[in-house]
Amino acid sequence: ENKKQLFMISASKVAKQNLIPFFEKWGLRPNNDTIQKVAALGYPILTAEIWKGTDSNPIKPDMPNVNNILEGNQFAWSLKGIGDFEFAKVNLNKSTEEMQIDLKAGVPHNYFDSTYASIKVQNTSGKVVYNKEFYGNKQQNAGTQKVSVKTGDFIELTHLEGGERATLINLDNNKRESLDKKVMYEVTKDGLKKVNQIVNPKPDTEAPTQPQGLYASNLTSNSVELKWNPSTDNIGVKEYQVLRDGQLIQTVQGTTFIDQNLTANKEYKYAVKAVDEAGNTSIQSEILPVKTKDQNVSYEKWDPKKAYIKGDKVEHQGTVYEAVQNHQGNGDPNWIFALSLWKPLTIK
Q1: What is the DSSP letter of 57?
Q2: Which terminus in the chain has less CB density within 10 A, N or C?
Q3: CB 255 within 8 A of CB 285
Q4: Element at 323 (helix H, strand E)
C-alpha cells in the first residue's frame, strides 16, 4: 500500500501535473497524506479525461505548449551580478497564485553606483504590490517575501546588463531564455505575455452611495452610539467619516461609532460620509440631531400627602416634575397631574 501511495506522488512529480483524478478513475485510492503531498507540489490538476482514450481515439492531456517558454504554470527568474552572484531569485506559481522573491545578502555589482536591477509587481487595480530596487554597490540583506499574483497582473524586471545575468526558466518545460535590460509581462490564463507597457486601469472616479439610516442608540448624558446602513461602491468602500457639527471627528471601518466625552443636555448634529479605495467621497448622510441626557440626578418619589415649595423636583412614574407653587398635599393621587401645581420636565 505504501508503494502505491509513493507511486502516485512520484508520477505526479514526473508528469508535472496532479494525477489524483487519473488514479481514482483506475481504482487507486490516495490517502489524505498523499492528496496533501501532491497538492503541495503546486502542479495543475489533470482535467483531460485521458482514461477514456483509446488507440483510435486518443485524449490529449492538459499540457502546456512545450515550444513556448511563456506557456505554463511555473516560472523562475534569476538575477545575477558580479562574478555571477545570484542576488535575487523569483518563483511564480500560477496554480497557487503566488510569487516568492528570495534575496541573498551581498553586494550585487560594485562597479555600478546606481540602480542595477529592479522587480515590480502591479495588480489589476493599478496598485503596486511589490517594488524592489537593487543598488549596484550597496549591501543588501537576505530575505524572502511572498506576493499574491493573479491573472491580469503585471510583472516588470530590469537589469543593467541583462543577457546571461538575467534569465527566465519555464519550470513546466525547462525552456530557458536570457532577458533584455527591461522586460514586462502580463499574467494570463495560459502563462505569461510580454507587453510593451504596464497598462494602468482607468482611474476610479465613482463615489460610494450616500450612507442611509443614520440613527442614535444607547444615549447617555455624555455619549451616544451611532449606527447606519452600509454604502455600496463599484470597487469597494474603504471607510466612513463621522462628522459632528460639520467637523470630522473620526474615521471608522464599520458602520457603528460611539462618540464620548460629550456635554450633558446639549444638542449635537451628526452626519456620515463613505470613502472608497480611490479616495472618492460620497454625499454625506442626512443630518441627525442628537441631544444628550441630563446628568444622572436622583429625585425623591412624589408623596401626595407632603408639603412642597415652588421649585421642588420629584419623580413620579418615570417623569420628573417641578412644583410651580407652594402647596400642601391632601393625599389626592391626581394632584401630580394638575398643571397649576406641577410642571412635567422630562422622562428619565
Answers
A1: S
A2: N
A3: no
A4: strand 319-323
Residue 311: DSSP 8-state: T
pTM: 0.46
Helix intervals (H) in 16-123? 20-25, 32-40
How does 337-348 read in b/e, with b if 16+ C-beta sit within 10 Å? eeeebbeeeeee
What number does CATH give the domain 212-291? Answer: 2.60.40.10
Cα distance between residue 1 and residue 222, in whole Å: 72
- CA-CA distance, 227 to 242, in Å (whole number)? 11
Q: Which three cell numbers stand for residue 77?
A: 527568474
3-class SS at 14?
Answer: helix
Cell digits of residue 54: 483509446
d(Cα 314, Cα 341) in Å, to the nearest integer?
12
CA dist., res. 311 & res. 340, Å (int):
13
What pairs with residue 161 in β-bridges?
A: none
The grid coordinates of residue 117 equal: 536591477
> Chain-wide mean pLDDT for the chain?
88
- Reported as a single tens digit per residue, the pLDDT across 168-177 is 999 988 899 9
User: Quick check: 194 and 184 in contact, CB under 8 A?
Assistant: yes
pLDDT in tens, 200-244: 777 788 999 999 999 998 888 889 999 999 999 988 899 999 999
CA distance 78 to 140: 16
CA distances in angstroms from 277 to 121, 122, 127, 264, listed in the order given: 19, 16, 11, 37
User: What pLDDT is stored for residue 58 in this prediction?
Assistant: 58
Q: Which of 65, 64, 63, 70 is nearest to 193 (CA)?
A: 70
CA distance 260 to 167: 60
DSSP 331: S
The cell 406641577 sits on which residue?
Answer: 342
Instruction: Name the residue ranges covered by the structural domains of the chain.
Output: 2-52, 74-195, 212-291, 307-347
- Asked if 184 contacts 135 with a C-beta cutoff of 8 angstroms, the reply is no
Cell of 156: 516588470
